[in-house]
Amino acid sequence: MPLLINREPVENDSWTLVDEDTLQQSGDIIVPLALYQENQDSLSNREGHLAVQVSGDDNIDTVLENPNQFPLIAVFFPAVRDGRGFSIARLLKRAGFTGQIRATGDVSHDRLDFMTRCGFDALEIPADRYSEEVHNAFSEFSVRYQGAEDDSRPVYRQ
Amino acid sequence: MYQYNQVDQQLVNERVAQFRDQTRRFLAGDLPEDEFLALRLMNGLYVQRHAPMLRVAVPYGMMSAQQMRSLANVARTWDKGYGHFTTRTNIQFNWPKLEDVPDILEELAKVQMHAIQTSGNCIRNTTTDQFAGIIADEIEDPRPYCEIIRQWSSLHPEFAFLPRKFKIAISGGPTDRAASQVHDIGLHIVKNDAGEVGFEVLVGGGLGRTPVIGKQIRPFLQKKDLLSYLEAIIRVYNLKGRRDNKYKARIKILVNALGIDTFRELVEAEWEQIKDSDLVLTDAEISRVQGFFKPFEYEADAANDTSLDAKLAEDASFAAWFRQNTVEHKVSGYRAVIVSLKAHLVPKGDISHQQMDLVADLSDKYSFGEIRSTHNQNLVLADVRNADLYELWEILSEANLARANVGTLTDMTVCPGGDFCALANAKTLGVADQIDAKFEDLDYLYDLGDIKLNMSGCINACSHHHVGHIGILGVDKKGEDWYQITLGGSDGEDASLGKVIGKAVASDEVADTLEKVLAVFVEQRIEDERFIDCVRRIGLSPFKEKVYAPAH
Ligand code: HEM
Ligand code: SF4
């Protein structure tokens, strides 16, 4: 799946999203939070890096308590209209998370700029929604009113 | 009123270009229908019965003469020559072509107008009192705060995909002319014991299929905390509001499910984290924006006019209009004039392009070039000299804009209903005509006094039928239009939800039914009692008995 990191396309990505069946595979894996919590013990001494994927239905309090135990946290967007992920990314940033925040699921052109502003640095775009035009998404606006994770200063403090 | 600076203009221009590109990608098949739907709604574009419907924002109801002329031009060039003012003080065009919308928006951008967030599940136009800044009972002019909220909420990166739409209204003082208690957030400008001016904050009001009156979440909020507190409320809502059922997705449902106390705890905990952040409003920013809403340079000798009294004495029609359609201004020698968009047998809130141009000219000539729209679908020229009232009235009358019915039964608030709206269960325009035809006698209406009649074509309640003194709701019974009647609603500081009087009535019986309701009122009324007070005092039973009495 096409991946942008800091707005640039990235070819070699080491991460794989796993499910119950592929949980035991080697390498760098992203584990959905519920699955991670069920298998925390068996996952603790494996080779390779470990990340979690959270979504709006998850209680992410434990993740927020210690986010930097993960090098990457994926935030899943189940549908275009589901905007919980934007707030989740901001909460992760506020909790002091310094790793990669990756948007997954329904990620496409018209939300990329908002995602970036909310703190996402990696955007995973489904292949059928990806084209060269996607790169324009970051230059559609040259001005903004609010502060966000990219720059906390609202227009009246700039 | 507020004037765009370079940043404001740039943002609107770039939004037009973005929307043009989105439309192009949709028409080229690169953007799936359901995704374009969310994007076009966020830019005010619905697809309705006959054509797309474009809703243009009139931020907190303020328009300049130049903006009104531009709206007239849009109506003329891309629509069928008219527009429709809504209960959220915006204007809708019913007949534009999808391909033309980017051009329309580009035209509007030239006069600092846009359609940003006039629909969709995002923060909508903040509404306020149509007499803001000119009415004696206000504590402070709410418009600067509306503008501050407009800027903060426009293209907010976190809140573009909320569970459901989000509406904020601000009232500037104890008299609530903004229906603030039936908004997702209602803000009341108040003074605390220390004499500081700030906001009382209500949350969780709303109409639609589950009408709810807002609840107080904070008795007093400092001005500087306005945006951080709004952000805290909306973040909690964004994360916790229901997304599994769009009929249960408004914040009112969340507040009721959690209880206001639990909801408040969540908001206050979130606020604690951000109340000292860069969101704090600076004094400089507040005064910068306030600078755009300074009182006009009123003429000191306006109060010395004697011509008004003479005209009032000699012309009874003028005197009636003066009494009904003008309002006391805090500066003596001036009045606010309500331009009635409730002409006899004309769809309520509709205005032709000629009328728009005329109102623009009149505002230039008589009212400092500004016009306001009201949540009852009328317009206001807020700053007219007493000496000019007669002349203004004559011109408005000529243009069918001076029906002296403001505040009476026929000053109805009516949504477009089944003639235009794809969601409607019943038509509304024909019933409004029926009511107009039946209650044509103005003297009878004046005797009845203040009555607020609101009619919606379906449960979505676009015309606030639950909070009309009399509410009419169109329902569908086996393919026929029927109308359910409620009594006792109010959207003022004494907000209440009307109660249904009984089974729905057939479409040809609505006006007759109202006649019976009013007959009970006239019979039971004590002196000059208002209709709503009478309903509250005697309850629904006498009305039910009369309306549903078996025919003899
Ligand atoms: C013609 C196209 C229109 C469509 C498709 C439409 C659709 C809707 C829908 C679906 C709702 C319910 C939302 C909810 O409860 O979450 C709603 C509410 C509302 N609409 Fe409309 N509407 C239209 C026109 C209008 C007009 C003409 C007005 C003003 C006269 C208006 C003002 C409102 C208001 C004030 C509400 C809020 C009621 C509340 O607080 O729940 N709308 N509209
Ligand atoms: S109340 Fe119903 S019929 Fe009227 S405009 Fe709203 S959605 Fe349409």
Give an account of the 3D structure.
The complex is a heterodimer of chains A (158) and B (552). Chain A has one domain: Alpha-Beta Barrel (TIM Barrel), CATH 3.20.20.70. Chain A is built from five helices and eight strands; from the N terminus they run ββββααβαβαβαβ. Chain A has helices spanning 33-38, 40-44, 61-65, 84-94, 109-117; strands at 3-5, 8-9, 15-17, 28-32, 50-54, 72-77, 100-105, 122-124. In chain A, 41% of the residues are buried. The model of chain A has no long low-confidence stretch (mean pLDDT 95). Chain B contains 18 helices and 21 strands. In chain B, 55% of the residues are buried. Chain B is an alpha+beta fold and 552 residues long. Chains A and B meet through helix 4 and helix 5 of A and helix 1, helix 2, helix 6 and helix 9 of B. The complex binds protoporphyrin IX containing FE (HEM) and iron/sulfur cluster (SF4). The site of protoporphyrin IX containing FE has 23 residues of chain B, from loops. Residues 46, 48, 53, 86-88, 92, 164-165, 182, 206-208, 250, 415-416, 420-421, 423, 460-463 of chain B line the site of protoporphyrin IX containing FE.
Tags for this model:
heterodimer, A: 158 residues, alpha/beta, TIM Barrel, 8-stranded mixed β-sheet, 5 helices, 8 strands, 21% strand, B: 552 residues, alpha+beta, 6-stranded mixed β-sheet, 5-stranded antiparallel β-sheet, 18 helices, 21 strands, 36% helix, 17% strand, globular, binds protoporphyrin IX containing FE, binds iron/sulfur cluster, UCP030820 (chain A)
Radius of gyration of chain B: 23 Å
Query: Total strand count of chain B, please?
Result: 21
Biggest pleated sheet of chain B: 6 strands, mixed
Indicate how many domains the architecture of chain A comprises: 1
Number of helices of chain B: 18
What is the CA–CA distance across the termini of chain B?
60 Å
Main sheet overview of chain A:
8 strands, mixed
Strands in their spatial order, largest beta sheet of chain A: 2-1-8-7-6-5-4-3
Small molecules bound in the structure, each named once: protoporphyrin IX containing FE, iron/sulfur cluster
- Report the CATH topology name of chain A: TIM Barrel
- Sheet-strand content of chain B, in percent, reads 15-25%
InterPro entries (chain A): UCP030820
Protein name (chain A): DUF934 domain-containing protein
GO molecular function (chain B): 4 iron, 4 sulfur cluster binding; heme binding; metal ion binding; sulfite reductase (ferredoxin) activity; sulfite reductase activity
GO biological process, one term (chain B): sulfate assimilation
